[in-house]
Amino acid sequence: MTRPLQFPPRTLLAALLSVCCALPPMPATAVQNLPTLGDSSRESLSPLMERKLGEEVMHDIRRDPDYMNDAPLLEYLNTFGWTLVAARPEVRGEVGFDFFFFAVRDPVLNAFALPGGFIGVHSGLLLAAQSESELASVLAHEIGHVAQRHIARMLGSQKQDSMIALAAMLLGALAMRGSGDAGAAVMMGGTGLAMQRQLNFSRDAEREADRIGLSILDAGGFDTSGMVAFFGRMQTASRNYSDAVPPYLLTHPLTSERIADIEARIREQRYRQHADSLDFQLIRARVRVLQDDTEQGRREAQYFFDSQLKLNTKQQIVAAKYGMAFLAFKREDYGQAEQLLQEAVAAAAPAKQSLVLTDLGIEIMLATKREAEALKLVQQAQLQYPLSRGLAHQYARVLIASKRLDEATKYLREQAQLYRQDADVQDLLAQAYSAQGKRALQHMALAESYVLTGSVPAALDQLRIARNSPDAEFYDQSMIDARERELQERWKDELKASKER
Length: 501
Hints:
It is built from 23 helices and three strands. By secondary structure, it is mainly α. A hairpin with a 3-residue loop joins strand 2 and strand 3.
């Protein structure tokens, strides 16, 4: 299997931006009460096409090993992110962008927005944020970029020369995989006045996103001074980056003027203290373990949790115990993991049930073959969190592990109808069919999973395997033929589009 492209810190973002921007500029969607940049008369790509572009980029991101496909982390980020969106619903625009928040494994303090409502945050930034208000300030800033469609519109009237410069940036990102000096030379060769114009526009966009972000923080009841504190730390951190990295690769140029502008805007606002949720501390502990799964990384995480226990505050103690439990789970020391988790739960009382703590409890029960206990726990949790996608996946996994395969396939088929973009549901459905010995249905489900993750050729391979399965019935063959024709046409269109870019 071909390994997905991997980029060093920041060059991944440059490559993504080059993909997003090397297309015709997009129209400025008016957002109620929000300022706009650019001349819409020059723009031609619809918001729906913008969403499609974002989805195509996300297909590549999800295949990258540094994409953090971790259910509790995704659940937290999207619940938290949608709280911010709900504070200013007009940021969704006239087409109602369906925001999706995710994380990538990268120690650099950064976050980025893609066209269509996809917002990524680096693991390093999650660990550096000292409060939910600080995290909210970054996500709100990125929401501002999406609301104003900055990435799609940043080329403006400089379409031709900016495309040349951005294409050079993409080549440089690829070259840097083998040689940082060679990559920098390629990128420097493609820059000039056009890149300076783009940077000037980018700084204007950053200030605009700051203003929108502040309005979201204020409406959502967060401490607006968190933006000043966190951006100040990001500015300090940026000074530590290698001088060999061209400055235009910084996706969010931080300046003293920007920070001063934010300070001036919040000076007259009433101070508002926001209490952090327990899940914020738990997720940061989880990310600390997930960020580096080497033995050295785990030792450093253990040292951090040992130090955190000495802070002797309730949330810090719970987070440290949970982090230690998750570390023990990763080391397959399930007895120690369960003991530490119980200590974390006891320390958290009488706080309401935490989905993050519950998730680890279910995982430990599945690992120790206690399916009946796991089923009871996941069913109780679903009563409190009926819309949790992570719990839905765990419920299916528990049913499969319990050999309740008919229940599992029925439940997963219903889930597939309700959540048509959920590739994990199709993967679980394939597992259930495999356990039942239904090979044709197994590979048909795998084909749908590959389609959802953007791998049409792999999906066609799975359909061919399904057709040749000995248990493929006449109805299955008809379904396979129809789906294969549809995907072949789709693949031809994708190849044609890629040649025209």
